[in-house]
Design brief:
With 447 residues, the protein is of the alpha+beta class. The chain is 36% helix and 20% strand. It has helices at residues 36-52, 66-72, 78-82, 102-111, 156-172, 187-202, 210-218, 229-237, 247-262, 310-313, 328-337, 355-371, 385-394, 405-410, 431-439, and strands at 56-57, 63-65, 85-88, 94-97, 121-130, 142-151, 177-183, 267-269, 281-289, 300-306, 321-327, 349-353, 376-378, 399-403, 412-417, 423-427. The chain is elongated, with a radius of gyration of 30 Å. The structure holds one RNA strand of 74 nucleotides.
Amino acid sequence: MTPKKPAPKKDDAPAKKAPSPIAPPRGMRDLLPADQPYWKHVRSTCESVASAYGFDRIETPIVEETNLFVRGVGKATDIVEKEMYAFETTGGEKLCLRPEGTASIMRAYIHNGMLNLPQPVKMWYEGPMFRHDRPQHGRYRQFSQFGCEVIGEDDAIVDAQLALMCHIILKELGVDSVIRINSIGTPESRVNYKNALVSYFRTKRAKFSDEDKKRLLKNPLRILDSKDPAIAELKAEAPQIVDWLDEESKTHFMRVLEFLDEASVPYQLDPYLVRGLDYYSKTVFEVYAQSDDQELAQAALGGGGRYDGLSEVLGGRPTPAAGFALGLDRIVSRMRELNVAVPSQSIDVFVAQLGEQGKKRALAMFEELRKSGIKAGEAFAKEAIKAQMEIANRRNAKWAIIVGQKEVLDGTAIIRDMDAGTQEIVDARKIVHEMKKKLGLNGTVQA
RNA sequence: GUGGCUAUGGUGUAAUGGUAACACAGCAGGUUGUGGUCCUGUUGUCGUGGGUUCAAUUCCCACUAGCCACCCCA
């Protein structure tokens, strides 16, 4: 490119290169004020359901010792092997951004001696998780999860209730869902099954893609999930995990299903469902959005299951436990697709002013309204009343109070009904009283 | 992490080898007293860097980002 002609500048300051704007890191995004009504609604729904089911909140650090996940989630899992935001501090600590919640909750349970609390301990959490995966719609490197954990109880009804909660939360958010469920038994029965599976598939290795050959070695259970049509044929003949379950797991699973039937939770048995985290045992499930159109990309809205072995792996006593996590980003996105209405934050009254004196009076009036619990809005920096009324309208104010020069002199204010377009003049000192009356906040009960 | 597609104002789109059109939103006005209609004005170094060319937003390459599939999962 030829150098630009020495375009003479008006001022003789050296032409600085304008700093380029900075985007958020890959796979991370801003949740803007416009997004918040959705998030607020989703979070509060999750919380109130969890609370109704007897769960209390727990907050754990976003940064944890890397080892927690290496031991808890499993060294060979994708999450630990290639998706962790791991780093070393100047002090030499090996830390990472948490990729999931369960391991932290179990760590906290052990560390804080919660085994001395009445069992089971039921806790919920919500917050950002981090996985260095390749971003896609509904898959972010920072995403939010809401999760519930029941620690210290092995009864099958807990597993069923957790799945039920997933379904209920989504239902309250206007999202239809189905549970896909399976049992992967105890670690011992799983090893036996894995061996049977490998020896079955090894004879057919010739038909495998490179990808599936790799899986045969690394994670044979996953082969059952393969999209390769050649595998689909072989699958029918392959050993089924149910046939390899130990008696206890089998009965446990049967009871889980019975409870689900009892609670009328829609579910599908999925003998090929395995989960990517090592800590699972017995029950595993995933929650999917139900839709008419084909397969939705990234349709898994949540997942969970039983993890009876996790406590021991993390140095605690043998403690049965189960839980689930929901992906909030995906739920919000699904709600948007479905045009689910969420409560909007509208104001009760908008305070409009005119002139310097009006501004001063309005400032005080706004504060009075606020203190008495009325949701008031304002745009005091604006001069034109027209612009202020536009804002009042945009914010869905039911009422507007107008304080201009004249009103200041008279000691009055105008109350305008924004729907009817009618207005009345009231004593400025009685404005709070008037508004409370109009909004029905007076506490005067009508018979 | 692998493969593919895409990249134009705040948003959604258009056109073009000779520096950009439209809609919506935003802001400011239509003689500082009133909104949900109307009119006017205004908002862009055409993702970043390089190359080809007299000339590039338009062609080529790289990078970056987004999206899609895989992988995996929330």
